[in-house]
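Incident log, support desk, overnight shift.

02:14 A customer reports that sequence design results differ from what the structure should imply. Their input is reproduced verbatim below. On-call engineer (initials T.W.) acknowledged and began investigating.
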């Protein structure tokens, strides 16, 4: 489906730029007035959930041999969306439980050590998938 393809490319590019260039979407006042919605927590959570769902739908909507072609963009969307949600969770969680007991160690290690590399990967996959949508191994 063209809609899922377009959403996959756009969301992977956004998540890739966010992680690669270390964008800060923490405050509505720090952003220009036309982009103030990017600083809202509800928008960021929605964006993360939509990115994961589009990645899953990309896997489910594949047909014939194109499944292999949609595998990397789908996995990039799922991983990027989960890390985006995890980052927003760690920034905004204000519970009394110590951080060490509630953090998921795998995501914490993955997020801390390879945030930029995952961003570059998502961005590269989005660009290549945009220009060559039917390539067999992307």
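02:41 Re-run completed on a clean worker. Output:
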């Amino acid at each position: 489906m063209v809609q899922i393809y377009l959403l996959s490319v756009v969301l992977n590019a956004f998540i890739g730029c966010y992680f690669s260039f270390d964008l800060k979407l923490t405050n509505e006042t720090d952003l220009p007035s036309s982009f103030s919605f990017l600083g809202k927590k509800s928008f960021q959570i929605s964006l993360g959930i939509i990115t994961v769902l589009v990645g899953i739908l990309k896997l489910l909507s594949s047909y014939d041999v194109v499944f292999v072609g949609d595998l990397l963009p789908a996995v990039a969307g799922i991983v990027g969306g989960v890390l985006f949600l995890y980052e927003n969770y760690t920034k905004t969680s204000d519970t009394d439980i110590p951080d060490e007991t509630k953090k998921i160690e795998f995501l914490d290690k993955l997020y801390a050590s390879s945030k930029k590399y995952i961003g570059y990967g998502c961005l590269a996959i989005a660009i290549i998938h945009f220009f060559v949508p039917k390539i067999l191994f992307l």
